[in-house]
């Protein structure tokens, strides 16, 4: 990225990351809610949707505010973004394939309790190539946390428990809500990064006016 211009694609790429975190964070919260087996269902689902919606609104604000920015005008830059998008598609597809395989294996061996933690491990692992691909160091932390969470849960927590005569799927609740918080937290960090890029672009524009 140039020191004199902040390309529109950089900000919108950041916004896309925020949307990704908002959507999948809310999905993971849904897994946690399902693990609660109907206990406090309405409160939890409303809160999860609210957090996801707030992050989505932040992403939309980034997209709207990035409209005045110049897009990459250099063919080389456009080609680099095209290649990044191709590799993102490959990584995302591989992640989906591995999750499908894990689902089949867990179902076939009658070990569905392991599916959610294993899925979290797969999701966490896919953040490492994304961090390198898009040069977002925060994704390394996200991937590490998403890999550590299910590992610690499986080693220390019981699969299920009963609270006030109510069955709780502990692994699903812990990994679901924990992963949601990690992804939402990443979304907030990435969103602030986007607004920081906008601020840099505004400074460049103001300096240009007075130069």
Strand order of the largest sheet: 1-2
- SSE class: mainly alpha
Largest sheet: 2 strands, antiparallel
Strand content: under 5%
The end-to-end distance, rounded to whole angstroms, is 22 Å
Number of strands: 2
In helices, the fraction of residues equals over 70%
Which features characterize this protein?
211 residues, mainly alpha, two-stranded antiparallel ribbon, 6 helices, 2 strands, 79% helix, 3% strand, globular
Descriptive account of the structure:
The chain has six helices and two strands. By secondary structure, it is an all-alpha fold. α1 packs antiparallel against α6 and α4 runs antiparallel to α5 (138-156). The two termini are 22 Å apart. The model has no long low-confidence stretch (mean pLDDT 87).
């Amino acid at each position: 990225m140039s020191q004199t211009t902040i390309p529109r694609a950089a900000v919108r790429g950041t916004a896309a990351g925020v949307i990704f975190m908002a959507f999948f964070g809310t999905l993971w919260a849904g897994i946690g809610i399902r693990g609660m087996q109907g206990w406090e269902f309405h409160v939890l689902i409303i809160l999860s949707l609210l957090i996801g919606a707030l992050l989505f609104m932040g992403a939309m604000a980034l997209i709207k505010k990035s409209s005045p920015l110049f897009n990459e005008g250099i063919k080389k830059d456009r080609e680099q973004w095209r290649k990044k998008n191709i590799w993102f598609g490959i990584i995302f597809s591989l992640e989906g394939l591995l999750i499908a395989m894990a689902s089949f294996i867990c179902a076939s061996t009658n070990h569905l309790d392991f599916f959610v933690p294993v899925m979290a491990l797969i999701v966490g692992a896919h953040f490492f190539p994304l961090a390198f691909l898009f040069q977002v160091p925060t994704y390394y932390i996200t991937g590490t946390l998403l890999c550590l969470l299910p590992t610690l849960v499986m080693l220390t927590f019981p699969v299920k428990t009963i609270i006030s005569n109510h069955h709780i799927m502990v692994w699903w609740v812990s990994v679901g809500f924990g992963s949601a918080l990690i992804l939402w937290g990443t979304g907030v960090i990435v969103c602030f990064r986007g607004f920081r890029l906008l601020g840099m672009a505004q400074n460049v524009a103001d300096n240009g006016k007075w130069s």
